[in-house]
Amino acid sequence: MLLPYLESNRLEAGCDEVGRGCLCGPVVAAAVILPEDYADELINDSKKLKKSSRATLVNEIKTNAIAWAVAEASVEEIDEINILNASFLAMNRAVVKLTHSPEHLLIDGNKFKTELEIPYSCIVKGDGKYASIAAASILAKVYRDTLMEKYALQYPGYGWEKNAGYPTKAHREGIRQLGLTPIHRKTFKHLPDQLSMF
């Protein structure tokens, strides 16, 4: 069972993002405030869960959370400010969208940048330690995977319905044969011999 909070008697929002290592599509972040006494042994780091489990848990989290929100940073923003800053931007947007204002943020990772006047703690591998961060990772992953499945219909041939835009063999083969789409991140290295592609 993951930890319910870092410190008791305060509203903590767990924050996580997904899609940093993808070659295309937005980076997506979520923020979740869970009740202090909430417990669900199934909630864990989204990468450790089956797709069907994540889908079930999305409804569970949304129903039981005090507040939750999902936000994006676009491909254009990723190319303009870099993927790390775009991840922070998406997380900040998710926090701002929450219907309750958190008193503290639990950020998955070792770094965060914000102009919000909310104190925060960075927790390495936090999605495997704190329930609220794990819940945020689940919401962000399901949202982004669903989005990439829709993009896969619009731009077939890259296998996004399976790889969600990560640099798999099928995705790279699609790039070789079909070139880049408008939702590919132009500042990312898509292929080892990529220079001829631009």
From TrEMBL:
Keywords associated with the record: Cytoplasm, Endonuclease, Hydrolase, Manganese, Metal-binding, Nuclease
Subcellular location: Cytoplasm
Amino acids binding a divalent metal cation: D16, E17, D108
Coarse class of the protein's main subcellular location: cytoplasm
Lineage: superkingdom: Bacteria
Catalytic activity, reaction form: Endonucleolytic cleavage to 5'-phosphomonoester
UniProt EC number: 3.1.26.4
GO terms, molecular function: RNA-DNA hybrid ribonuclease activity
Classification via Pfam families: RNase_HII
UniProt-listed NCBIfam families: PRK00015.1-1 (NF000594), PRK00015.1-3 (NF000595)
Similarity annotation: Belongs to the RNase HII family.
This protein's name: Ribonuclease HII
Organism: Belliella filtrata
Gene that encodes it: rnhB
